[in-house]
Each structure stands twice: as C-alpha cells, then as structure tokens.
C-alpha cells in the first residue's frame, strides 16, 4: 500500500511503527510525525482544532484534501499535454520520474497512469515495467498499450484474437437467425450501422492512429482468411478501414492504397448497386495499379471478396442483364457488365492470390460472357414467352408448355466456373423474389451440383430460405415441396449439418403451410448432424428428425398439448 514512498524520502506506516516502538513518549512522537508529514501550511495548524470540535476525523479531512489535489493534478496534466508549449512533454517526463515509484499505490496510481497516457513516447524502461506487471498492464490506458503492442506482436495478437473470434461468431449467428424475411436479412444493415458493431469499434480504438498496429491487424486477417477460407475476415478488413475513415484518421487512410477504392465501393454497397459513374471510378483504381505495386491487388481482392461487396456486384450484374434484355443487346457489348465480372473474378480469386503470392488479376473466362450469360438470358426469355402466352386469349394460345430442362451451357458453367455459379445463384434468388414458381422448380435441381458446393453455402441458403417465405402458400403443393426439398435441400442432407439447420429455419417459419402428408415425411427424415440430439429440434430416439417442426410436437409454439407421433 505504501510502496515507493521511501524512495522519495517520504515516511510511511513502517516508519511510524518503528518510531512508536523505540520512543518513550508515544503522544509526542505522533505529534512530531504529524507535524513533519502533514500539510505544510502554517495557517492550517490553528484551524485543525475547529475540525476536532465538529467531530471530523483528521483522516477524513486529509483524505478529502488529497482527493481534491489529485483531481486538480490530473486536470493539470491533461492541460499541459493539450497545450502548445514546446517543453510540455519534458514537464510530463519529469513528473513521471517523480511519480512512477508510487505507481503501485492505489491512491497515486491514477496520476501516474494519466501522465503515461499523455506521453506520445513513454520511456522504454517504464513500458517494460508496465508490461511485466499484469495489474499495471490491465489498468493502463489504451494509449499506453498501443506503445507496448507495436513492439510485441504476440501480446497484441492475444488481445485481438478474442475479438476476431467474437466477430465470426456474430456473423454466423446472423446467418442462422430464426427470423426469416426478405426485408431483414444478413445484408440488410447499412455499412455505417455494421461499423458500429462492438468488435469494429474496439479494434478501431485499439489501433488509434498507429499504422504499425493497423498493419498487424491486416496481417492477422490475411493469415486467418488463408487458414480458414472464412470470407467474414474480408468483411472485417473493409469495415475496419472504413471505420477509420469515418473517424478521419488520415495517418492510416492516407497510407492504405485501398482507401479510395474501399470508399467508393462502400458507397455502392450502401446503395446495393454500382452505377455508371462509380463503375468508372472503380475501374480507374484497378487500372491505376502500377508496375511494382501489384501486391495491392491482394488487398483489393480481399475487399472484393467481402460478401457485402460480392452481393452488391452480383445484384448489379443481374440488373444489368435485365437492362440488356430490354435493349436486345448482348452481354459482351456492355462495359459496365464486363467491369462487374472483372471485380467479381478478382474477389473470387482472393484466396488463391494470397496463398500463391502471385499478385496478378485472374484471367476472366470470356465464355462466361459469350456463352453462359446468353444461356441464362435465354432462360429469362423462355419464362417471359410462357408468361405472355398465358395472357393471350384462349383462341390465340398455342400448345406451348413450360420448359423443364435447362441449357447445357448454363448447367456446365455453374459447375465449373465460380463467377458463373455466383451469378446463377443470384438469378435463382431473383426469380424467387418475383414469386416465379415455375422458373424456381426448373432451376433448383441444377443447384445440386455447383462449383465447390456454393449452393449449399450458408450465405446463399440464408438468402434462399428468406426468399422462399414469399412463396409460402406454394408449400401446400406436393410438386413444389418436392422441388425444394427432394430435388435440392435434402440431396445434401446427410453430409452437411448447415443444410440441416437452414431446413429447420425454413420449416420453423413455414411448417403450418407445408402439405401435411409431406410434413409427416419430413419428420421421419434420417440423418441429423452429429451433436444434434438433445436439442428441442431433434428427437431423442434412434431416428433424429424434424420433430420440433411437426404440427403436433410440444416444442411447436402453435400446439403444446401432445407429443410428436414419432416419439
């Protein structure tokens, strides 16, 4: 409690104890100790007896004076630091030298920490002492910790790691949310809203204006992305940069070569569309990568790999294709479309580029433009032709039936090319949004075999289940249930736990709409993922199932009176 006082020549409790042990007149010794160590103000001595008359203990008086002086000193430290005196930091360093021996005293510690906080460069010896003492390290300001972290990457990594884990958990929780809606989904929050998340704010505070710490965080994100292939790390990379941009941290934004590109892309994400003006700006940034600076492509690709960026690019691509159809133009004639495909290709190739350390834009497969997109547009034309046919008077109708097969080129490219696959998946979402049951039943079986099983990824399934709520009444039809479940979702059931969970999300929302006989079949479906038993959404018997979604299951909120017939 009194650590450091002897070093400053100030008597402490041990000195008083020794004095009382060796003296012959304790009262005189106490008076002498108080005289030497009390407040050295002559006029105060005559006033103290008045406090005694009012029953105010001397300890209480001295403590209140001490607290007041401490607050005044801390304010003075802040004033000196914020001033313009050239020697202001010299004054603070002198104060630090005098006060640091008392850093372990709880009553003095706030003053020492205040001085440390306002020193732009704390003496290395003091930093090492703070770092070596867990209690001191814990209570020191983030401004001091930054100076410690910049030369201790492992320690900084220990601080950052829990935040990165928390971020991934939050993103995955959002994807598996029980709320299904086309209006409120994973991509609904605006970029600025997302940047107000706890993890982003904490990381931004930890980095401050320190370029070295910013570079460390980016390296952590690259390493984790490389190790896990988790695209949410790409989101965090973009959010972190734009959070610093919001705070006008020019020390970092001015040295990050991706800043202006991210700023422009962020505006596109906010609008969920890349307009012609911003498309030209983005193209200018990509074309402006100079020889010898190709490494920046690694960071640009990571920013474009962010699911929010990818979502915006593909939505813009689908919209562009619709405009081309209305103009009776070909995909290869649209510069904006070609740029969107270029950025999609760069984003989709982020992992390969960072892994290989070959910083070169991936060559875009031209047949995606000349063969795949026309094939996809032909599907749109088929659908439009059938719709127009149905609206004709009966005497003008032909025997045209809705096509059930897909162009071979379309199916092949969504299996072999990831950019084509991404566009194809978003086209499926587009027709679901239009409540086009026929087109959906035609396309879903083709999604069983896609590039790298992208159709069974969490982001697509999250969006698809939300879009399917628009077709809730169609689930009363066995034909539609067969298309959604038998021809698509259940094909991956036995090997993919995430598909199981997304099915549960969908059925939890729509179970009252699903055909009763089909619902009974689903409740007996085998193949629950490992670790699922014990959850209220699974039975405890030998055959894990969709019990919780059965209309008669006790966990079903609509009826809790009886148990599931299967158990």
Automatic annotation (TrEMBL):
InterPro entries: COBRA1. One of its GO terms (cellular component) is NELF complex. It comes from the Eukaryota. It comes from Cyprinus carpio. PANTHER family: NEGATIVE ELONGATION FACTOR B (PTHR13503:SF3), NEGATIVE ELONGATION FACTOR COMPLEX MEMBER B (PTHR13503). Pfam families: COBRA1. This is Negative elongation factor complex member B. GO terms for biological process: negative regulation of transcription elongation by RNA polymerase II.
């Amino acid at each position: 409690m009194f650590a450091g006082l002897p070093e400053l020549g100030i008597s402490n409790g041990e000195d008083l104890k020794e004095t009382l042990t060796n003296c012959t007149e304790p009262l005189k010794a106490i008076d002498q100790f108080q005289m030497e160590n009390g407040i050295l103000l002559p006029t105060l001595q005559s006033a103290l007896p008045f406090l005694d008359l009012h029953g105010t203990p001397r300890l209480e008086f001295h403590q209140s004076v001490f607290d007041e002086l401490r607050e005044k000193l801390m304010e003075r430290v802040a004033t000196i630091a914020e001033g313009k005196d050239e020697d202001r930091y010299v004054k603070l360093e002198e104060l630090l030298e005098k006060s640091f021996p008392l850093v372990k005293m709880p009553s003095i510690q706030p003053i020492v920490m205040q001085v440390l906080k306002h020193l732009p460069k704390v003496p290395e010896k003091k930093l090492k002492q703070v770092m070596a003492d867990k209690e001191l390290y814990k209570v020191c300001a983030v401004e001091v910790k930054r100076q410690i972290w910049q030369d201790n990457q492992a320690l900084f990594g220990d601080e950052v790691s829990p935040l990165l884990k928390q971020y991934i958990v939050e993103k995955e929780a959002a994807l598996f949310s029980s709320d299904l809606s086309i209006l409120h989904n994973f991509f609904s929050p605006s970029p600025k809203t997302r940047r107000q998340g706890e993890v982003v704010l904490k990381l931004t505070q930890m980095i401050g204006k320190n370029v070295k710490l910013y570079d460390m965080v980016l390296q952590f994100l690259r390493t984790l992305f490389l190790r896990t292939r988790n695209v949410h790390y790409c989101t965090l990379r973009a959010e972190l940069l734009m959070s610093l941009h919001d705070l006008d941290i020019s020390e970092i934004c001015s040295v990050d070569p991706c800043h202006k590109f991210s700023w422009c892309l962020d505006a596109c994400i906010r609008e969920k569309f890349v307009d012609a003006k911003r498309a030209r700006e983005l193209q200018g940034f990509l074309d402006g990568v100079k020889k010898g600076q190709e490494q920046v492509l690694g960071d640009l690709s990571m920013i474009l790999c962010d699911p929010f960026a990818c979502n915006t690019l593909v939505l813009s691509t689908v919209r562009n294709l619709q405009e081309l159809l209305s103009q009776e133009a070909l995909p290869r004639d649209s510069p904006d479309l070609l740029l969107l495909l270029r950025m999609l290709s760069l984003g989709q190739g982020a992992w390969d580029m960072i892994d290989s350390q070959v910083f070169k834009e991936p060559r875009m497969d031209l047949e995606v433009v000349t063969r795949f997109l026309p094939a996809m547009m032909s599907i749109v034309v088929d659908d439009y032709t059938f719709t127009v046919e149905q609206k004709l008077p009966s005497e003008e109708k032909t025997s045209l039936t809705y096509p059930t097969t897909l162009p071979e080129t379309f199916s092949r490219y969504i299996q072999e090319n990831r950019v084509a696959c991404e566009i194809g998946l978003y086209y499926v979402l587009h027709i679901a949004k239009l409540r086009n049951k026929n087109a959906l039943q035609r396309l879903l079986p083709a999604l069983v075999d896609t590039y790298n099983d992208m159709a069974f990824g969490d982001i697509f399934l999250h969006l698809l289940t939300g879009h399917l709520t628009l077709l809730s009444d169609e689930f009363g039809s066995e034909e539609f249930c067969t298309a959604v479940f038998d021809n698509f979702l259940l094909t991956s059931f036995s090997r993919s736990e995430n598909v199981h969970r997304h099915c549960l999300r969908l059925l939890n929302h729509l179970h009252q709409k699903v055909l009763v006989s089909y619902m009974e079949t689903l409740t007996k479906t085998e193949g629950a993922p490992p670790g699922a038993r014990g959850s209220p959404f699974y039975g405890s018997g030998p055959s894990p199932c969709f019990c919780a979604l059965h209309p008669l299951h006790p966990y079903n909120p609509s009826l809790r009176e009886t148990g599931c017939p299967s158990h």
